[in-house]
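STRUCTURE REQUEST FORM
Protein name: Cytidylate kinase
Source organism: Ruminiclostridium sufflavum DSM 19573
Requested output: structure tokens
Priority: standard
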Amino acid sequence: MSKSIAIDGPAGAGKSTIAKKVSANLGFIYLDTGAMYRAVALKAISSGMDTKSQADLAKLIKDIDISISHENNIQKIFLDGIDVSESIRTPEVSSGASAVAVFREVRLKMVDLQRKIASDRDVVMDGRDIGSYVLPNADLKIFLTAAADERARRRFEELMQKGQKVSFDEVKSDMAARDSNDSSRSFAPLVRTSDAIEVDSTSMTIDEVVDRIMYFYNNYCCSN
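Status: completed
Returned output:
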């Protein structure tokens, strides 16, 4: 039977970085679910659609083709057959992803794909609603968080390294808006489930967070 680890938490908490390292340690597939919502947002923006229009997105989601491949534990995401792994990482698409993720039609389509991937492969999956909705029976659930200023600093530095011209205040404001969207949406909001272990990464290094999760996996979960 396949095993699964769900890592949820707000934007900038380090979910993707941590999930990649944990999956590599365990030999699991890493699935960045946020990239899938970013792909939907990218298509909406490229098509001139309003990312906050349920009517527009309901039409778009019917014909969208999103697929994922893994090479050496590196995820690549394809939108209508085109590799968009890099182009989905702009601030505009980040904001759009949070907007489109509010709508039930979009989430149902993405969740169906996520569950299919996890049904026959060992996975580490990160997102906003993995432990609460996508994989409610995950073997291990982690809620990864950090102080708001620290999360904004991490995202700002990440974007600067990629050559994107943004200000810290813009990143912090966008992150606050995403936090509000993710936590207040009516369908599958960001929430810490009662069986999730909270890890506050504010003052921790990446390796320390990974070690903490590996400890929980080996001692409380499913190492045998």
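Reviewer notes: The first strand starts at residue 4 and ends at 8. The beta strands are 4-8, 29-32, 66-71, 74-79, 82-83, 123-127, 140-145, 197-200.
Form closed.
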